[in-house]
Amino acid sequence: MEVLQPTSWGEALAAKEEHPGAVPLAGGTDLLVELNFDRRRPETIIDLTRVAELNEWSHVNGGVRLGAGVDYTRVIAELASELPGLAIASRTVGSPQIRNRGTVGGNLGTSSPAGDALPPLVASGARIELAATSGTRVVPVEEFCIAPKRNVLAPDELIAAIHMPVATGPQQFSKIGTRNAMVIAVASFALTLDPPARSVGTGIGSAGPVPLRATEAERFLEGVLDEEGLWDSRGQLSEGAVARFGQLASEASRPIDDVRGSAAYRRHSLGVMAGRTLAWAWDEYRGTL
Amino acid sequence: MHLQLTVNGNPREVDGAWEGESLLYVLRERLGLPGSKNACEQGECGSCSVYLDGVLVCSCLVLAAQAAGRDVVTVEGLAENGELHPIQKDFVEAGAVQCGFCTPGLIVATHELLARNPRPTDPEIREALAGNLCRCTGYEKILDAVRAAAVRNSRA
Ligand SMILES: Cc1cc2nc3c(=O)[nH]c(=O)nc-3n(C[C@H](O)[C@H](O)[C@H](O)COP(=O)(O)OP(=O)(O)OC[C@H]3O[C@@H](n4cnc5c(N)ncnc54)[C@H](O)[C@@H]3O)c2cc1C
Ligand code: FES
Ligand code: FES
Fold first, then answer.
1. All domains in chain B, ordered by first residue
2. Domains of chain A in sequence order
3. Contacts with A49 from chain B: Cβ below 8 Å
4. Quick check: CB of A119 below 6 Å from ligand 1?
5. CA-CA distance, B123 to A152, in Å (whole number)?
6. So what's the ipTM on this one?
7. What pLDDT score was predicted for residue A46?
8. Contact A32, B20 (CB under 8 A)
9. Which of B19, B46, B61 minimises the CB distance to A28?
10. What is the pTM of this model?
């Protein structure tokens, strides 16, 4: 086994081009488990933790460009007001030790449908910047994951950054599991309200082969908010509308039965979480008059 | 593989390490520092917790090469002049140690918590120690020990 340790982004991309089979390593909270248990024995590892560019975030075109190597602890500490949905989800990841090392780029790299960073990215329309020595491309997060643990990264590509709009309204995330900490989501749901654009975004985790959007639930809620003038009045949402939103979110999932939960439970819990996150987010919106 | 790193304030060198080794393996098997425990090797139990450049991490999830040139502090580095660290004494006095396997990780995690937040509330203690498992104590005495350490801080 060989471990390459580039110290700049250019070196990292060159290393990936030269060793297309090499496995990138960020915080190691997924990859080291595989190495320790001998589930994976790559010939070459590219350690990205010395590439300073990956560990930075900045404002670009009115949004946030989050370097793939920024860990969850920093997302929580530094981006809670600009990317609140992602920060809430980051607080639910593993434990302090895991959040100190684990990265959003690593969550994308693993492409598990249960990755907790992914639903908030979907709900906010994140775009993923992929880079190779030959150039850069940007793909919507929904097109990035293509199947459980599979994504569109080409052999010579690395994840450079995640582009997200700065929040213009409330964002929420809810996750269900057997414990409050150290839990892989049985199901999860993320919600983004964008009042200036009059739009609603959703993301479903752990209830399909890839993170999903509940498009019909989004359109339904946008319709209710428009028709009843609620964006402007900030009036109360009817219980019926909240329940219908939950039901449509639940119907958008494509869950399976597995060791963590049954498909029926996932569907049910998604309806509950969608309704709850909407109630929280709408209360927050009403409170900010 | 050749490796240079600082452990508990001392420059250390390791020769002949395998590239796929974790920092935990290097500490225990190559540097003779068995304080950090190996219980799960998958980040679930926290018994291998150490500081890496001042950040609390599971050493089983750090590739040894990632720690090259970095500063590592293990539980062995907390005691001074052969005297237990006050947090270690609090654990002993509270009866928070039974088999002791989880203790080094909990000591390092508690040390990190109190450095950040000298007077944590109970929910903050629970949150900070959520990544450290104990099979023996039922956690109550561990919470007592951390509370005692926090009280000591508020007197200091
Ligand atoms: C105890 C424990 C608890 C956990 N709890 C949770 C949880 O609650 N929620 C959750 O979502 N996850 C959880 N995880 C999984 C893991 O922490 C996350 O998926 C994390 O985001 C992985 O990030 P990392 O930087 O550690 O990735 P690594 O392990 O370094 O890498 C993960 C994958 O991404 C690839 N990769 C990393 N960076 C790049 C890049 N820049 N370009 C291309 N590929 C890249 C790697 O090659 C690898 O395939 C947990 C893990 C452990 C051990
Ligand atoms: S041995 Fe590292 S967390 Fe259990
Ligand atoms: S004292 Fe035995 S595991 Fe905690």
1. 3-78 (3.10.20.30), 86-155 (1.10.150.120)
2. 171-286 (3.30.390.50)
3. 66
4. no
5. 41
6. 0.97
7. 98
8. no
9. B61
10. 0.97
